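::Encoded backbone::
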Amino acid sequence: MAITRRPAPAPDNPSTGRATLGALVRTRDFRRLLTARLLSQLSDGVFQVSLASYVIFSPERQSSPADIASMLAVLLLPFSVIGPFAGVLLDRWRRRQVLYLGNLARFGLGLVTAALLLGQAPDWLFFAAALLVTALNRFILAGLSAALPRVVAPAQLVTANALSPTLGTVAAACGGGIGFLFHQVMAPGPEADAALVTVAAALYLAAALAAHRMAPELLGPEHHPDRPDLRQALGQAGHEFAAGLRHLLRDCRPAVHALAAVTAARFCYGVLIVTVLMLSRYTFNDPEDSQAGLATLGTALGFSAVGFFLAAVVSPWFTRRLGLAGWMAGCLGSAAVFVPALGLPFRVAPAMAAALLLGVVTQGSKICADTIVQNSVEDAYRGRVFALYDVLFNVAFVAAAGVTALVLPLNGRSVGVVAGVALVYAGSAALYVRAARRTPPPVN
């Protein structure tokens, strides 16, 4: 069945079918969607650093991998429950309104969270407010991915997926950098965390206003008069989510393979993130110097952000020569080599080099997966599939933190953990190559 898409601008060079960066930048609707993404994810970066500072790098706390796993479970797993409902809404509500109202709600929730920090409210109340902000974040990211094919031509999707989500990730890293710099200036404590959350809230408001500039119907979905109303849709959300899953499993095998591969990569990335957190706090710095630990973590994330940017630059070139499946397998396979080579010394310089390369392969594999899913899944199901995509990402990340909490020592030094991650990368690459040979992804 053909994929229904809103007509989009043709690429600059129809004879080759290849989109150029200039063609995308000149597309007004794409620029507006990109602006909303950048402001939204910049805010996320600031907000997430405030959480990390409060939970992990507070001078009065001695955080462990289990604490990190608990925080991630509280903030991410609930989205797995609302994921089916989110997908149904993304396939019914105007996605532009989701971006506008979602960011507006996060503005208000951010101010509430800042007030709770200043008032030294109980941890459970703080986490409840942070949970709502984070749940909306995942909802908005799924909407952004589902909306992208509405503003670009089919031949532009690889380039758009190289640019848009990657720049969004870089924006989140820049937001994190703002947070890290903020904490180098202000003394650690609730006042600094509350001030940083207020900055994030202001940026959420800017993201809402940027989304409001787009036409209400621009981002879809298509209107289907025969669809039941919203109340009925929510009542049968489980049924409809199952229908989206059946469509994915029955008609979109390349998308299934890509989702499995990128979920495995996300698991590995989660394990390594927790490892770097522990190394930054307890091995690379004096455990009593929380500011130094936060600065080291910020440096690692900065290198990773550079890797995300490099992935955006090189992925279109590699996919044209290797294909989407070839570049996906290359990303996973190369990580199996450099993770132990750079990670096992447990020194700062090799760890920063690994962070850079991890940024390249993690974002490179996601660019491939995004494009395969968008090309394989019909527009009527795309919101539900990207909601499932987000659920898989969250569950993989929390599972990684949970597994790491069981085996990682407090100082973060574990040969077994690093070697295990390398084996998972290698196994994922081999399995994906085998699956892609049986059912190749669509040619873009």
